[in-house]
Amino acid sequence: MKKLLSLLAICFSISAFAQNNVTFQVDMNEYAGAYTTVNLNGTFNGWCGPCAVMTETAPGSGVYAITVDIPAGPIEYKFTVDGWAGEESLTPGSSCTVTSGGFTNRSHNVAAATTLDVVCWNSCAACGVVVTSDVTFQVDMNEYANPFTTVYMSGTFNGWSGDANPMSETAPGSGVYALTLTLGEGAQEYKFTTDNWTDQESLTPGASCTVSGPGYTNRVHNTSGDATLDVVCWNSCAACGVVINSDVTFLVNMNDYVDPFTTVYVSGTFNAWSGDANPMTETGPGSGIYTATVSIPNGAHEYKFSLDNWATSENLTPGTSCTITTSGFTNRFINVTGTSSLGAPCYASCDACGINNTSDVTFIVDMSQYTVAFTEVAVFGSFNGWCSGCNPMTDFDGDGIYVVTLTLTNAAYEYKFIVDPTAPTEAAEQFVTGAPCTVGVEFVNRAITVSGDMTTTAFCWESCDACAEPVCQVPTNMDVVEIAFGTTNPRVNATWVNAEGTASCEVKGGRISDASAGTANPVFQNPTNTKLLTQTNGTTVNFNIALYNNPTIPFVIGKTYGYEVRCACADGSGFSAWSGITPGATFVVPGLPATAAVSSTKLLEAGLNAMSVYPNPADAMLNIQMELTVEGSVEINLINALGQTVLQERNSGTAMNARVDVSSLDAGIYMLSLRTSSGVVTERVIIK
User: Fold this and answer.
1) Same domain, 309 and 335
2) Which end of the chain, N or C, is surrounded by fewer C-beta atoms within 10 Å?
3) Which residues are CB-neighbours of 417 under 8 A, at least 6 positions away?
4) Looking at the structure, do residues 487 and 518 belong to the same domain, yes or no?
């Protein structure tokens, strides 16, 4: 007997670890892209990419196969090309798939050696075979209060058309409407509507027959065979008149709440948000934990804890695991399916008291290859109620990479990046279904699960990857050709030569940091505070930086300034790299030419190193340029021939450019007086 038991144990041990030869087959004849190899990736090979190469079953057949020895049990897998250069985008809910953690993969339960059917890429069926089912939908309108003529079905299967699929009453006066549709495999979202979107269902998020996304809740049916769905009431997952109640025990921990209160209440959709209908009692003297049991209709409900008949209530964080945000309100959420007792979260939190459940998340997006002009970049998502302008991002060094760090409650979130969120040019990212960093079908968003401090990849706009290197070359021959003075718009002219295959260019100019001036690799003193100009295409292009009148590039005599250029690739692949600030692209701002009427000695006595007044005579604008020996203020007075002060203003700083509008003054001779803390200088000015 012992020998027999020993043999049985050995046999059991061998069978527990037995392998099974499973042959996978995929038909690539309807795959439109180019590829070199077809690969099999799954849980059994660690999603390894290029390691499992499939072989064409016959030359030119387009059908690829591979046999893999796999332990018994459930597996997930999908077909890919060239490692992970391309992968299947499978329909969630289709018969051969499973969706988990935002990923939809093929599934198979390995029980023995087998050869799986040949399937078309991206399909559960063979190529050319469309799997359909007849599904009958039914809705009871007897509790619908508004007048209507026709009931329709609108959904993903008809592009949410308002009148493509009218429903028919099952019997005269029954108030029940039905429609049979032939649908493909997979999840279909829909809702019942009246009179071409005159009205539509307002479904409760989280209800058993629904699916929700940013700003919408729809019914959902997973088509996998012919079916007649139960009659449901308008706006409900159940039949009309059916109300099933369950006892739900609510608990809340008030130990971290510091303000005085008398009574804790639970308020929600189940009691019309009453402030005093359901008072809670302390579970034990001094426990700080309060409880109440409420009989609630089965289904989805929103609620929160409040104090002293709405004297105050919880302020919950949008996007946290226990909440839902609708119409601007963030509440707790529960889907009642039977008698239950909830946990005891801390007041205003989804977690127990004393738990730090937040993390710092740094979001990064690379806009260097975004070719449309924009002013601002922001991130928005379920963590901020999809507020497009609430979290602007910053490009700290002018390289086109924008960053923002947010403190978020640990949870799963959806989000996107957006440009110019408060302007008419607002544009959010758009993704195709199945992109690896995204979730969703109708609304496809980036996805992130926060469980600790983290930094995202520097995603390229509308991509799950970093930006690829642009293919065009940087411009060359950077050269400052002119620094002009004595006009109403002092300027710097400079040139460059476009590289072959480039189109319009962008220029950054500004002051060079003192530490890097004169080195082989100068850098801007403040990269985010530079002048940016867009130029038209050309082999050599001049640009102008108005040093004296541009507040973003303050003019300082004796300091080094420079510029760099990048150009758009003509093939649309993005921008070239920045040219860098070459020696030919830098210049030192010279001192202003001294005014002949005032000697250098007089200037120094008044605390001025240099002064220039032009044009003189003047007819519209009078420019007064000054460089003080030390930082301070200058009072400017313009005095007419009668000794009357006709203009007065005050400037402060070290180097200044005052532009005075004299167009309204009478023609004649005036005296210009410049008063500093050290003295006064004057000069005669002629107004034409």
Assistant:
1) yes
2) N
3) 363, 365, 377, 378, 379, 393, 402, 428, 429, 459, 461
4) yes
**High-pLDDT (> 90) share of the chain, %:** 40
Q: Give the pair of three-digit tokens for residue 353.
A: 């008291």
Asked, for residue 369, whether it belongs to a domain, the answer is yes
**10 Å Cβ neighbour count for 81?**
21
Nearest alpha carbon to residue 459 among 449, 448, 450? 448
Q: How confident is the model at residue 424 (pLDDT cuts 50, 70, 90)?
A: confident
Q: Are residues 9 and 57 in the same domain?
A: yes
For residues 221 and 229, is the Cβ–Cβ distance under 8 A?
Answer: yes
- Number of domains making up the chain: 6
Distance CA 96, CA 101 (A): 17
CA–CA separation, 497 vs 480, rounded Å? 13
CA 374 centroid distance within chain? 15
Domain span at residue 399? 358-460
Q: Which residue has the tokens 């520097």?
A: 458
Extended beta strands in 132-209, E state: 132-140, 151-155, 168-169, 176-184, 186-194, 199-200
Whether 592 and 611 have beta carbons less than 8 Å apart is answered as yes
Neighbouring C-beta atoms of residue 487, cutoff 10 Å: 10
Q: Which of 513, 553, 558 is nearest to 532 (CA)?
A: 553
Looking at 402, 436, 460, which one is the last position of a domain? 460
Three-state DSSP at 5 gives helix
> Which secondary-structure segment (H or E) carries 490?
none
């830098």: which residue's tokens?
586
Query: Which of these ranges, 155-164, 245-254, 485-494, has the smallest mean pLDDT?
Result: 485-494
Examine the fold and report which residue of 560, 588, 616 is the final residue of a domain before the chain moves on: 588
Structure tokens at 2: 């012992």
Which amino acid is it at 299? G
Per the DSSP assignment, residues forming a β-bridge with 317 are: none
The reply to whether 7 and 71 lie within a common domain is yes
Q: What is the 3-state secondary structure (H, E, C) of 306-363?
A: EECCCCEECCCCCCCCCEEEECCEEEEEEEECCCEECCCCECCCCCCCCCCCEEEEEE
pTM score, whole prediction = 0.38
- Give SS3 for 158: helix
* Beta-sheet strands, E only, within 61-201: 63-71, 73-81, 86-87, 97-100, 103-110, 114-115, 119-120, 132-140, 151-155, 168-169, 176-184, 186-194, 199-200
Q: Cα(415)–Cα(379) distance, rounded to whole angstroms?
A: 7
Q: What is the pLDDT of residues 358-378, one digit of tens each?
A: 789 999 999 988 878 788 999
Token pair, residue 331, equals 């509440």
CATH value at residue 545: 2.60.40.10
The whole-number pLDDT of residue 70 equals 93
pLDDT tens readout for residues 588-626: 776 544 444 566 677 888 888 888 888 878 888 888 888
> Which residue do the tokens 């003054």 mark?
665
